[in-house]
Amino acid sequence: MPQIPLNTPFTAASTTADVLHGVDLRGREAVVTGGHSRLGREVTRALTTAGATVTVAARNPAQAAAALHGLPGVHIEQLDLTDPASIDAFATGRIDASRPVHMLVNNAAVMFGPQRRLDTRGHELAFSTSHLGHFHLTRMLLPALREAGNARVVTVTSGAARFGAIRWNDLNFATGYDPVAAYAQAKLANVLFTVELDRRFAGAGLRAFAAHPGVVIGPGPHSWQVLDSYRAQGLVDEHGTTVIDPGAGKKTASQGAATIVFGAASPLLDGIGGVYLKDNDIAVLDDERRPVTASSIPTDANSAMLDPEQARRLWDVSEQLLA
Ligand SMILES: NC(=O)c1ccc[n+]([C@@H]2O[C@H](COP(=O)([O-])OP(=O)(O)OC[C@H]3O[C@@H](n4cnc5c(N)ncnc54)[C@H](OP(=O)(O)O)[C@@H]3O)[C@@H](O)[C@H]2O)c1
User: Higher model confidence: residue 232 or residue 321?
Assistant: First the structure.
């Protein structure tokens, strides 16, 4: 599918309510990983408001329940994306109950861990959570996704995918761990996974999207540990107040979640898949080398993140890692 914008009626400032206006999701079932915090919670709220039933998959269900405050239309189930047995149990329960999944939102992640951390199988935690866990979960849920007839899988990525690299010879950062490089590798993996998932299953009616939400730090107050970094990135002003500037990618939670629910449910994407979304549209493809600075991070698509050969290779490697 060409990475060409549709010129949708939405903008970077559009909210989940704008994107889902007139979209009736009654009778549709969604699974949202980490659907109880920041962007995930907003996705859960928006999909249930439009009528969907949402299963929030959380590693700590009690904490998730507290965060969701009894939101109607929500079920909470245990899922730890770094634990294969937990993923198997979650997916098996779903398949055994013969409940279709119309929308799977692979949202959960760990971001910029200052120290290198490994899961119990020795996989670096950002890659394990964002990519391997969601790869495993999606494949386990395939029967439920196929049963839905026209399901969508939205994997939440980041503009960081643009400057990420897959370290084929050292996926787990045995050497040279860097929090940004680890996050960018995981987020690039999210896009490559989307490309190959769509290639494999579009014919069966399952379409896949990668969605960049923009930068969402929440309303604050922000802890003193992050304030200097947020100031350097122009994310807060001199008083520590969150800057909202959607055109520059700095968004409210609803504006950030909008691109995710656009991928999950907008009829404008019917018949499309395997693309990277940004600002409630298919992102522009821009292969110019653009500098990444503290205050300006390019987030358009590039050809490297959509490379079908790299996407196939990552699929094969991921299968081997999970075998
Ligand atoms: N916020 C941004 O500015 C931004 C920008 C670009 C992309 N994104 C992407 O947007 C998505 C959501 O970001 P966010 O800012 O809303 O993140 P967040 O508030 O930090 O939430 C991350 C979620 O992932 C869950 N999680 C972490 N490890 C897990 C595991 N092993 N198993 C199951 N769940 C796990 C967390 O659960 P706990 O509550 O148990 O910790 C939490 O619910 C991520 O994919 C992120 O990469 C965010």
Answer: 321
